[in-house]
Amino acid sequence: MPQASPNTTERRAYTIVEFCDAYRIGRTKLWQLVKAGELLTKLVGRRVLIDAASAETWYAGLPTSQGKAA
């Protein structure tokens, strides 16, 4: 059975650094979201992972804005 290439596998979790880079937010804001229960985390030893499905749900729920025409 052929293996899936890394480009086609679905991401299941982010490290803290990966999440902050991907969503362009700082660590302080990340921990505020975790504390508020808006992002789910998983612990693997001492490493904290951010659940990717939780991240997508959070991002989808952000308000949208439309810029004004110049």
Give your account of this protein's structure.
By secondary structure, the protein is an alpha+beta fold. It has a domain at 13-60. Helix content is 37%, strand content 17%. The protein contains three helices and three strands. It has helices at 16-23, 27-35, 52-60; strands spanning 13-15, 41-44, 47-51. A three-stranded antiparallel sheet has the order 1-3-2. The longest helix is centred in the middle third of the chain and has 9 residues, at 27-35. It is globular and about 50 Å long. The protein starts with 12 loop residues before the first strand and ends in a 10-residue tail after the last helix.
Topology:
Layout: E1 13-15, H1 16-23, H2 27-35, E2 41-44, E3 47-51, H3 52-60
Antiparallel strand pairs: 1-3, 2-3
The secondary-structure class comes to alpha+beta
Helical proportion, percent range: 25-40%
Rounded mean pLDDT score: 88
Quick one: how many beta strands? 3
Low-confidence stretches: none
With strands numbered from the N-terminus, the spatial order across the biggest sheet is 1-3-2
The dominant shape is globular
- Tally of individual helices: 3
H-E string: EHHEEH
Q: How can the largest sheet be summarized?
A: 3 strands, antiparallel
Distance N to C terminus = 55 Å
User: How much is the radius of gyration in Å?
Assistant: 15 Å
Range of strand content: 15-25%
